[in-house]
Design a protein that fits this description.
single chain, three-stranded antiparallel sheet, 3 strands, hydrolase
Length: 179
Amino acid sequence: MSSKPRSSSSPRTDARPGRLLPWLALAFLIIVLDQITKILIVQRFQLGDGQVITGFFNLVRVHNTGAAFSFLAQASGWQRWFFIGLGFAASAMFIWMLRSHAEQRLFAFSVAMLLGGALGNVIDRAWHGHVIDFLQFHWDVLAPMFPGGYFPSFNLADCALTAGAIGLILDELLRVRRS
């Protein structure tokens, strides 16, 4: 049985596993690093404990049952399953995006970061019922927006999500500039 070659004008790119694999490996690396750091925090800190590292940075152990900035943290528990489902749906979309655009480096890097970050936090929600956050920054200039100038605590998965979002914005700006 022979297959017809794809037309070069086809909008969908060839989704060979070899092109997708580096991006999935990056997402997996993010998940592994995120989970290792969370395990280390859980082993060394009790909930609410912290250690001053610099004048503007602390390691802490915080549990977040909500989303970014503790959105819906005070809900009655349904948010855990909602955010797990949302994380899996987003991850499926990210994988589809990677399959379709694996050759676009900045775009694929950004989506892989989003995939790793989303799944890192989904694992926490499924395993613990909350996300473990541990990076805490504080500056006086933040005091008008955040109590005491303390930015909400976050983790490596959140860093990957932020890097992915910034990368997507940059990719779009560069794409618009080229056209």
